[in-house]
Amino acid sequence: MTATCAVVLAACILGVLYPYAIYPAVLTLLPKVPVEPRPAPRMRFSLLFCAFNESNALDVKIPNLEALRKVDPELQVLAYDDGSLDDTLTKLSERPDLVEVFQGSGRLGKAHGMKVLAGQAVGDVLIFTDANVTLREDALERLSSWFSDPEVGGVCGTLRYVNADDSSTAAVGGAYWRLEEKIKTLESRTGNVMGADGSIFAVRRELYPDFPDTVLDDLTVSMAAVFAGKRLLKVDDVVAHERLVTDRKDEFSRKARIAARAYHTHRVMKPQLRTMSRIDTFKYVSHKVIRWFGGLFVIIGTVAAIGLATTVAPFLGLAALVAVAASTVIAAKVKSGPIAALAEIVIALLATLLGVLRAARGRTYSTWAPAGSR
């Protein structure tokens, strides 16, 4: 019994650490597949974003779009309003010179809205972003240089958060994202990134796939480049900025929703996933699948640790159980410092697991709402 608990505990610790520590180390050992930016022929871009109740964000977004249009007067900007209850639609509609606006008939969701916009796009390359994200003014020029290589089908930019010091939730979220960006860079150097974040990525228009409204469109669209045999790159010189969620409850809900959509998308993409190369399959499982069950490793590992303590001495098992309960209560109340940071990590893992379990039971998400603490 003691040996069994020890082995299970060790395996769970390995399962939690592998995607974030061991996997990146393995990536550094894989063969490099370099791609270099180069002078690009003239190409046209279409920039697409969906919005729901993003009136405040548009006060920053619209000036950013103006700056991008000054750099590229031919930039096509398309926006989809998903039934906003504030004056999002009004603000977008006030700028027909800058933005072509499409309005949904009620709440239909981002995936639906992006499909509508992609159907109206005329650019050689489609740029996907969010209503609350701003792009650095040289983003279009940088994208052109990467897409000058015909083997490049998609490009994931770099997202930088601007408020990581606002709370423990934001600090942990910012640290997680810096690690995520590093992992994607390592993946890119060895071939393909395993999917894009919706804040900033671009694909060639002819690669845009068909998909149901319930999927995570960022993952579906970006992985279409990989399925088509093209490169999906992560680059450091296409930069976007966004604000982090600062409230623990908001972040829990957000992560659970994203995980549910990601796992549902995984099931929809299974036929295409089977066609990937062995190296891409290895990266996909390491980056995506194992992470989804980090919360399960935490739960099983905790039970195994209590069981291990009990096999040594019953009072140690009881002490371990009390320690776990006390830690849970304390972590729920502490909002700063190392304990709060550890709590944020565990909560994120559990939220992801909850989302996966919801998706496994058939629950899907198509709509979203901006986090109030963003």
UniProtKB/TrEMBL annotation:
Signal: is it a keyword of this entry? no
The record, for PANTHER family, names: POLY-BETA-1,6-N-ACETYL-D-GLUCOSAMINE SYNTHASE (PTHR43630:SF1)
Q: InterPro entries from the entry?
A: Glyco_trans_2-like, Nucleotide-diphossugar_trans
Ranges of residues in domain Glycosyltransferase 2-like: 48-208
| Protein's UniProt name | Histidine kinase
Give the source's domain of life in one word: Bacteria
**Which GO MF term does the entry hold, naming one?**
kinase activity
Task: Please name the source species.
Answer: Aeromicrobium erythreum
Question: What does the sequence similarity comment in the record state about its family?
Answer: Belongs to the glycosyltransferase 2 family.
Looking at the UniProt entry, the stretches that span the membrane are 289-308, 315-332, 338-357
Q: Which UniProt keywords apply?
A: Glycosyltransferase, Kinase, Membrane, Transferase, Transmembrane, Transmembrane helix
Tell whether Membrane is among the UniProt keywords: yes
